[in-house]
Design brief:
By secondary structure, this protein is an alpha+beta fold. 55% of the residues lie in helices and 12% in strands.
Length: 250
């Protein structure tokens, strides 16, 4: 930003603050490297408190709710805030979520067999995200990236619409922004054979290549139902993998 000094001189402080408050974390960090003025402004508690509350809106650090019924979790966060300031608290919380995301990645990778995951392990990963209290922005940052296994994209997507209860339009927009809408997974499931004149027919093997975008907008309701329910009732087994050029029944 070559003209940062002249821009700084021509901007009232409140306008400069509004500019900083409109940016994402990476942009705030970039702007803060332009000059001493922007470094001080972009490192201020005003900016980092807004970034923290935007990313983790469910966390209340106010005095009235500093301690919850299960312990002193919020109280500890309040003490961390007093020691580190909002920027330090943001970095601390980000690193905590990064470690939790890494634990999910490691778990899923251990569960893979021939590049596929059984639905029981898959659903446990989704439940673990819920137990770890991942927010939508955490999911976007760690799971909706184009340079990772598409199974992690799918786990993040499934968590968004099954646990966070986000509108389909919101999730679809996030996939588009992250440029992963057209990534595909292959879902295979085996159904118990139907009865026919007193005889049970052979078990059915079905498979479907689907895009993340179609799953987000509920265009593949049958596949969504299989992913939600897992292996129950007439469905004997479900496997999920990255889609190959051809996804044929076994």
């Amino acid at each position: 930003m070559n003209s940062s000094a002249s821009l700084q001189n021509s901007l009232p402080d409140d306008i400069a603050l509004k500019i900083a408050l409109s940016l994402q974390v990476s942009d705030v960090c970039s702007l803060g490297s332009c000059s001493r003025f922007w470094r001080e402004l972009c490192g201020s508690d005003h900016v980092w408190e807004a970034l923290y509350r935007d990313r983790w809106p469910a966390i209340d650090l106010g005095e009235e709710s500093s301690a919850d019924e299960n312990g002193n979790h919020h109280l500890h966060q309040q003490l961390d805030l007093n020691l580190m300031g909002w920027r330090g608290l943001y970095a601390h919380k980000h690193n905590e979520m990064a470690r939790k995301a890494a634990s999910i990645f490691n778990y899923v990778e251990r569960c893979l067999a021939f590049e596929a995951i059984e639905v029981g392990y898959y659903l446990k990963a989704v439940e673990d995200l819920s137990a770890m209290q991942f927010g939508f922005k955490d999911v976007q940052m760690f799971f909706l990236r184009p340079n990772i296994n598409v199974l992690f994209n799918l786990i993040g997507l499934h968590y968004c619409f099954s646990k966070l209860d986000l509108p389909a339009e919101c999730v679809a927009e996030a996939l588009s922004m992250c440029r992963i809408s057209e990534r595909q997974v292959c879902v295979r499931w085996w159904k118990l054979g139907r009865w026919f004149y007193g005889f049970r027919l052979r078990d059915e093997s079905l498979s479907r290549n689907v895009t993340l975008g179609d799953l987000a907008t509920s265009k593949e309701e049958e596949v969504l139902g299989v992913l939600h329910r897992g292996a129950i009732h007439e469905v004997l087994r479900v496997q999920i993998s990255a889609a190959k050029p051809e996804c044929t029944p076994w």
